[in-house]
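Archive transcription. Copying these from loose printouts into the bound notebook so they stop getting lost. Printout 1 of 2:
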Amino acid sequence: MHARIVLLPGDGIGPEIVAQAVRVLNAVADRFGHTFELTEQLIGGAAIDATGDPLPADSLAACKSADAILLGAVGGPKWDDPNASVRPEQGLLKIRKELGLFANLRPIKPLDALVDASPLKTHIVHGTDILFVRELTGGVYFGESGRRDGGKTAYQEMVYSEAEVERIVRLAAGLARGRDGRLTSVDKANVLEPSRLWRSVTSRVMKEEFPDVKLEHVLVDAMAMHLLVRPRDFDVVVTGNLFGDILTDEASMLPGSLGLLPSASLGVPRSEGGGPGLFEPIHGSAPDIAGTGKANPLATILCSAMLLRDGLGLPGEATAVERAVHDAVAAGVRTADIAAGGPSVTTVEATDAVLERI
């Protein structure tokens, strides 16, 4: 296979972890006889510094013509002025909107060898296997916003249409059908009107199109508690943009570190006229450890596996990468964030251990 992959290293530790994922992708290409054409583009704070735009036109054009996109991270203290008119995160929101990436998939599955790394008790965490499906291009992050009363009052609308809810629920229900057949929809229907629409549309779609999938509605505040008490009870969880953002960051602590969790942002499949998927670790830019060699590359390496499977249709290659990561961790390879005070390896050394096992 010949595939064009755009790299968006971004800010903070982004360039370091993307560089390690590139090593893994090159190893996969060599082993399985593929050609991956890798090109690097600007996004986030680095793009602001270079061009004044968090997503320059050249970056967007390259992404639109790619087969898949690998992103590191955006943001940092340098660009953290809340009153700034241009912010790194705007580049991320724009690329999601421009490419129609309406669904963010975030698997939460603690590695057996790292169950003890979780702040929760082992018997609560062990066996957890949740797939979050977060709606990514609607809701409060894309609603009309502004200031009034001379800047003393701020507002931001939460807006969802039936069509937006239908497409994310269909995708999530299809994934649930291929797993354990259970879908949990999270909303705030007791208070918010968009959530009432979300719940009614979800119920209708599931009844009419997915009667074989068991549906459960849970309020977002209750879900925040359930994740800490009974995470094993959930299979696929679908929710809106804001709730999904918060809940998945909370759930990331189940495996013990943000540095272990990948994500995929997907839209309409390429076979149906859609664009490329975007793959990124769920952690941030971690500017406090940038350049120290302490960054955990495993989430980004696992992103490369999702890229291979969901972006390029190469499940065997993806499984090889995932198995290599699991085997490395089982052999005791630990970066500082998961070492629990014990011996740790550097970013490059962790990748070396994975490469030895591919």
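Printout 2 of 2:
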Amino acid sequence: LLLTMSTPDEAELCYPHLGNSSCRRIMRSHSVSVLISIILSSISVLTVTLNLLVIISISHFKKLHTPTNFLLLSLALSDFSVGFVWIFQILLLDGCWYFSDGWCVFNAFLTSISTAASVGTVVLISVDRYVAVCDPMHYSTKVTPNTAKMSVVLCWFCSVVCYTTMLKDNIEHPGGFNTCVGECVVYLPPVAGIVSLLLKFLIPVSIIVVLYVRVFAVAVSQARAMRSHVTVVTLHGSLKVNRSELKAARALGVVVVVSIMCLSPLYIATLSAGFAGLKASSYVVFSCVFFINSLLNPVIYAFLYPWFRKCVKCIFSLQILKSGSSEANILSCSHAKFVLMIFGSCP
């Protein structure tokens, strides 16, 4: 039996049999590699699972088919996709790409579309809360389920078109920008990088901040009015904002703030270092912070939305498989009454 041992140089190559044409792998201790793999795998599984629960909940229960929840469904879909691409980040731990060049481009394409759709959806959520709080008298006519659906479709469509254009060279020539075998390089022209920065950070964050400052001002005025029993006066006349709308604005405000906190480090670092000056190690760290937002969103729902906790119980107890469960009034009924609820309205 002849045993062959790899030399140190060969062990550092992604494809030892290709010699110098192969990329070099990132060498780490076995314990560190295992620890990183476990952490990233856990994040990926949790992100996919929790967002899948949100998708099933909103899709199944008809009482949850509201404009705001359709926006949350879009956010969950984008976060689910981000959780899926985490798998590729795990495979790239050692700096080697073992799949085809086409899969490399697909990874970049899906990541770009998902993150862009996520940011766009957060902007739509801010607009939704702005109209609900600042113009409640016309909210039901301005923001309808169909309007929300069309806005979501348009958001995803624009994301697809935008990044299909930006990644056009990579799509047409997969692997054309690789310098060695085992590399996954996606080229983004400088102009496209600036456009991406504007569309995924500067413009969205500016819109979100302006809208939520206005929402916060109205919420403060409403709180004072409630204490003094005085009707709030706005530019649209005398009106009183529904408490549930204010509560929803606060809950979704947490989602918005967390999104901005996770989004900002990557783009601030990119602006500080210049588009070509950010180190690969720093980029990976900031990207992880960016992606972790997809895990935090459903966790926020679990803490702030009672209906989500009820839905999760119903899903795991398989109550949703019963006939008529989609008609259940999950917003007002307790889980104990769910079995009665599927055969009629909650008492």
